[in-house]
Amino acid sequence: MNEQDYEARLHIKTIEVQHLYNAFSHYNRYEPTPYAALEELCAVYPFDQTDTVIDFGCGKGRLNFYLHDRFDCSVIGIEMNGQFYEDALANQMAYT
Length: 96
Known about the structure:
The protein has helices at residues 3-10, 35-44, 62-71, 82-94; strands spanning 52-56, 74-78. It contains 4 helices and 2 strands, in the order ααβαβα. By secondary structure, the protein is mainly α. It has one domain. The chain starts with a helix and ends with a helix.
């Protein structure tokens, strides 16, 4: 599956890279981990329903929704950027 296919499957919007110049003293742009990299991670480390993952800097929640969809594990996202947090909440509402 490509990026758009995953987004459609999960009913989330995380694709767009976003630049937040001068938003923080240490600039880090939002760039979601490619789904192909998440597939590789899960091939090496198969999560299960008893796992809980904490994602610091979760952005819009791509990892969280992907892991929950694939393994039905618990995932907690922590994000300090207010806009990304709002986007993650919108994704949570849309997620199936």
